[in-house]
Automatic annotation (TrEMBL), chains A, B:
Protein's recorded name: Phosphoserine phosphatase
Source organism per UniProt: Oceanobacillus caeni
Shown residues within the full chain: 1 to 96 of 337
Keywords: Hydrolase
Keyword Hydrolase among record annotations: yes
Source organism, top-level taxon: Bacteria
């Protein structure tokens, strides 16, 4: 799981940069595909938020502390969803 | 579902403000509880991101366009997770 996330950060950051600059449909389509791939690889929602924070900090080193703190808060708001996803995954693995 | 989100925005915004200002454990515990309640009420991950954007814009009306665009991008990255959650919910409803 860690590997998928690590190898995705650069791609995510590039798409994010392109979307911020142009708000084009192509970047949105790209992130839609990426989202499907994350889910397929059992990446948790809070891991996506974490990757987003990392990408944002790399693109904007001057990012305000308020925004950084707020993103950590959002990450926390996703944790129940990650726990649920892991439970479902674990049930699936037991079934097959 | 819409009602749960609408009545939660103020609470979420207050907790977020408190966390940004103090980074205290109490706010993190609060959002952890809120996260469980959102999941129980079948709120989708992208709806949480959407609520986060709204709260952040209300707290910081001067929020940069870059951050706003980036949050819309993150929302898009969560959509597959929401679709999956709805599929699971729909299967559950068929079973009972």
């Amino acid at each position: 799981m860690g590997e998928v996330i690590n190898s995705s950060i650069e791609g995510y950051k590039d798409l994010l940069k392109s979307f911020i600059e142009t708000q084009d449909e192509r970047s949105l389509y790209g992130v839609e595909m990426m989202s499907k791939s994350f889910l397929k690889n059992n990446i948790l929602p809070e891991e996506i938020v974490d990757m987003h924070i990392q990408a944002l900090e790399e693109l904007y080193p001057e990012l305000s502390q308020e925004v950084k703190h707020s993103m950590n808060f959002l990450l926390e708001a996703m944790i129940s969803y990650g726990i649920k996803q892991q439970e479902i995954q674990s049930l699936k693995e037991k079934q097959f």
